[in-house]
Amino acid sequence: MKTIGILGSLFFWNNIKEHFTLFPQVQFIHFPYTSPDQCVNLFDEAASCSDILLFAGSIPYYYCYEKIKASHIQAVFIPFDELTLALSLLSLQHHEKVDLSQLSIDVPKQNSLHQVMMEAGIPSTDVYVKDYEWVYDQPEKITKLNVNDFIHFHKELYKAGKTTLALTSLHAVFVELQRLGIPSKYMVESKQTFIMTINSALEAYQHTMLTSSQIAVVSICSKQKLMDEQQLFVKSLENICKRFQARITQAQQEPYLIISTRGVIEQLDPAYLRSLIEQCERQFKTTFTIGIGYGYSLHEAETHSSQALFFTPKWRDASTVICLVDAENKLHEQLFEHNNQIALSSHHKAILEMAEKVKMSAKNLNVMKQFITVTNNRPFSATELAQYMNLSRRSAERIINRLIEHDYFKLVGEEQPYHQGRPRKLYKATNYWTF
Fold this sequence. Notes:
InterPro entries: WH-like_DNA-bd_sf (IPR036388), WH_DNA-bd_sf (IPR036390). This is MarR family transcriptional regulator. About 2% of the residues have low confidence. The protein is 47% helix and 19% strand. The chain is elongated. α13 packs across α15. The chain has 18 helices and 16 strands. It is α/β, with parallel strands linked by helices. The chain has four domains: 77 residues, Response regulator (Rossmann fold, 3-Layer(aba) Sandwich), CATH 3.40.50.2300; 107 residues, Rossmann fold, CATH 3.40.50; 119 residues, 2-Layer Sandwich (Alpha-Beta Plaits), CATH 3.30.70.270; 93 residues, Winged helix-like DNA-binding domain superfamily/Winged helix DNA-binding domain (Arc Repressor Mutant, subunit A), CATH 1.10.10.10.
């Protein structure tokens, strides 16, 4: 069962909850706010509890724009389309008998109203309209939408006798206009638009999961022959593979092949990967060429990995070169070359702050961060974490309990082992690890 966290007002929740029965395999959880900017403070909790986030509209979505990009969670919002506007105008005409010239309207994009009027054959007339199209132009810079500007817009027109009713696309504006006693209507929540949004989000989520489960093969060659150090190098690769829950093939000659999944590779911290490579370069006094291949079968992934390795000699760098060929047979050159330093500084700062807060070593927290990444933040037991970190189960439990106290981990359930024994507690990382 998929979980969709809904960030929206109580008004929005009440409008859409009748449609939930159309999605029996989905659990909907509400994270309510009274003002759109409050969703920023709700985001971490909602993301940690959900597979997909659904925002009530574009405004709350763009308030969380940077958090969405940083967390990589599937996030969508109910779009405002011409169907919503047309249904709203039709409803007003049928129930309220209000002429367009007597309306004050706020919409995301003013052109939407003119498009509906033109296609419906409605003669051009002066309409009191206010939009917030600027939100779509630079979404990453949105900091504050002044809801009071829109309330003032509708209120002043009504007080001046120029309008008899306000039609708004903003929940907070509608609630306040109702409180002030100003005749107002909220845009019709289209059932069709809601269904299309949820179906698209579920399809995108499924596609992401399928993509992440593609097989990945990593081919590694040294630029200087390792000679008598081959066994030691293989041993080093085995230790690295343990960290990534991957495995190295038994071949004792180059290229050495590592089998993993696309999801694990794509979630690797570039700075952490670079540090491992530099460690191997220093230890074995050579650089490497690395070819990564994705595929829907092992054979396909191996073929793409060989192709990627073939292109690496194109660069005569004094450092290790990584190329990738994806499942669509597209070549990605010089992987991880442009964002290493940025990732290193931000990751290091966040880890140090966490270490200070929970009184643990940054080294252990880095290992746990990698564990969360390679397991795609699925629920885990203390035994699994202990094996990954080479600790006793009791030590792992102490670490887990300390992180639970600071809201970095949470208890999510229990698992009954296949053999006889007591159920094992299952834990999951919260969204505070998304750095």
